[in-house]
Amino acid sequence: MQTDSTELRLRNLMLASLDGDAAAYRTLLAELGTHLRPYFTRRLTPAFAAQAEDLVQETLLAIHTRRMTYDRTRPLTAWLHAVAHHKFVDHVRRQSIRLTVPLDDDAPFFAHDDNADALARRDLSVVLDTMPARTGDLIRRTRIDGVSVAEAAAAHGMSETAAKVSIHRGLRSLVARFGGGEK
Q: What range(s) does the RNA polymerase sigma factor 70 region 4 type domain occupy (predicted)?
């Protein structure tokens, strides 16, 4: 039977190559290549048929790097088929199309939750109102409204340095009250 003779010939080449016969190894790789090409060509769609040679090379490289895992008591073609099958599965996984949608593309479908922003602004206003009026207003102007410290200080008729100190102390006080007492 042809298959048994092919198995025997390839197995003998593999065993000789594992024992250090470089000529047997070159012959083995050449013959394996002739068996792998049709294997991959039959499994690939026409759009990917050109990649059969890449798969042959990847499989031959895998055989080269993993040849010491071959069990000498087992048929070589079964081991070869397993390696080729894994390379084919890897190829299919690499080629699979995964539909991805950037998060920005979801914006038209989901409304912005203005309610959460309004609640946060209200809570912040309540907290700042518990502070001395000038300190609360300085924090509100510089940290929320984006006004410069110099402009906020001028609105209160104080120096920039005094405004910075007031803002710093006010924020520290808020951290002490609402941040678990940390300073």
A: 123-174
